[in-house]
Amino acid sequence: MHFRKISVFLASMLAFIKNIGRIFWRAWFYLLVLIPILIFFPILLLFTMSEKTYPQFFWIARNLWARPILFGMGFFPKFKREANIVKGKSYMLIANHTSMTDIMLMLVASKNPFVFVGKKELSKLPIFGFFYKRTCILVDRGSARSRKAVYDSAQERLKQGMSICIFPEGGVPKEDIVLDNFKDGAFRLAIEHQIPIVPMTFADNKQRFPYDVFKGSPGRMRVTIHPFMNTEDKEVADKKEMSEVARELIFKELTAYGIS
Questions:
Q1: What is the domain partition of the chain in residue ranges?
Q2: The dihedral of CA 45, 133, 179, 182: what is its sign?
Q3: Statement: 74-256 belongs to CATH 3.40.1130.10
Q4: pLDDT one-digit tens code per residue, 155-200
Q5: What is the DSSP letter of 123?
Q6: 228-233: long-range pairs with CB below 8 Å, 24+
Q7: How far apart are CA 241 and CA 244, in angstroms?
Q8: H-assigned helices in 40-136
Q9: How confident is the model at residue 46 (pLDDT cuts 50, 70, 90)?
């Protein structure tokens, strides 16, 4: 009986230590997010003063921000490329959305400069939000006027040779949902602008860095870049069907990875 009490106590202590370790590990993540921004603040400010210098900003965000965060947290991207992104061409990038690390992983996944379409609320975050609102296309999902402005802003960026990235679930789904229903905004944009859609499956982000502060661990982050979806022969009326095909493709890949 005495031995059993000691075992329970030791197990409780071990769980407590693990939880404290994860809290410090999480704090390290936010430091990795902020430190490069503070170090390169003057350069980032310069490159966000004009849309013409966005490619330079993107290069810094990809190589001096996203990569150090992923590797600094012990996350190691592993790509399975079923199609290759062509330099200088515009695409619509989509993926399942499960974690804050989706942003960093998407930056690493594409060498071509792209612009995120993201929710307006993130612009309120300190420091990060300052550059977020200067470089991303913000959308207030409760405003029809805001959604219309997204299409206008996306058109301008595509004319500049950029790609666009949208997480079509519209946000991070609840813990028990493997893959939420897709909204069709990304597919409508791609059809209207006749650009290929690049579906990606992020297999491990939810496990590696979920929103639960007491979960997560270092390890590999598997990414599948699926064959591109052509929009040249599509019309806006096809957006729903395309969104369902893309969702099914990503869902099957998650299942193949053992995610359920």
A1: 74-256
A2: negative
A3: yes
A4: 888 888 899 999 999 888 888 899 999 999 899 999 999 999 999 9
A5: G
A6: 228/83, 228/91, 228/196, 228/197, 228/198, 228/199, 229/190, 229/196, 229/197, 229/198, 229/199, 230/196, 231/190, 231/191, 231/194, 231/195, 231/196, 231/197, 232/194
A7: 5
A8: 41-47, 54-60, 67-72, 101-109, 128-135
A9: very high
